[in-house]
Amino acid sequence: xxxxxxxxxxxxxxxxxxxxxxxxxxxxxxxxxxxxxxxxxxxxxxxxxxxxxxxxxxxxxxxxxxxxxxxxxxxxxxxxxxxxxxxxxxxxxxxxxxxxxxxxxxxxxxxxxxxxxxxxxxxxxxxxxxxxxxxxxxxxxxxxxxxxxxxxxxxxxxxxxxxxxxxxxxxxxxxxxxxxxxxxxxxxxxxxxxxxxxxxxxxxxxxxxxxxxxxxxxxxxxxxxxxxxxxxxxxxxxxxxxxxxxxxxxxxxxxxxxxxxxx
Length: 263
Prior knowledge:
Mean pLDDT: 78
Order of helices and strands: HEHEEEEEEEEEEE
Number of domains: 1
Helix content: 10-25%
Strand content: 25-35%
Number of helices: 2
Radius of gyration: 18 Å
Strand order of the largest sheet: 5-4-3-1-12-11-10-7-6
Distance between the termini: 20 Å
Low-confidence stretches: 1-37, 73-82, 122-130
Number of strands: 12
């Protein structure tokens, strides 16, 4: 199966241009967030909300936009593994039917060509879709996740409610969140099966049984760690653990929309 390079190139160029505009706009308005701490200086503690929980709010990236200086390439800073055997790859966990279906996919099958977003993207885990810049807004009842790519969003309730049984399956699924100490844990399910996920540098299929568990941790003022595990019994023979991603606070405090147009 071929990665959809044509779409990636289009998104990369647009995101890079938009992010430069974001930086300029933030500077003009005097609303730019502080850049990451200079090397050698002690990290400032993570800010906290009125209830004492870490405030995840901010614009997060790998240190640069796609194609730009400082871009982390989706590998995640500090997310390397220690000694021992390499963990299974996503495609290495395919069931035989999923492997056979994946071999038939081509660039022309890519739903993003029709402005359908990915269900999950490991460039910077699912909140980022295929993009490299995203914003989190923390409120007392919701964590709001906004992305430039596809001008997408997720509303993650934090008040203990269950998944909604009455809503139909959707591209991005239904998410609920909970706090486990200082970790914000998000469980998302109820996906459609007509999108792709972007894992390990390639587009891959998933089923309507996809369930994603993410863990967000703001370790200090300028650093956000994200971990995720994907469960999909129709496509995977075992859960797949995404390599930990480490993001930094961007030097601007607002993202800009990247509106999608069919190619």
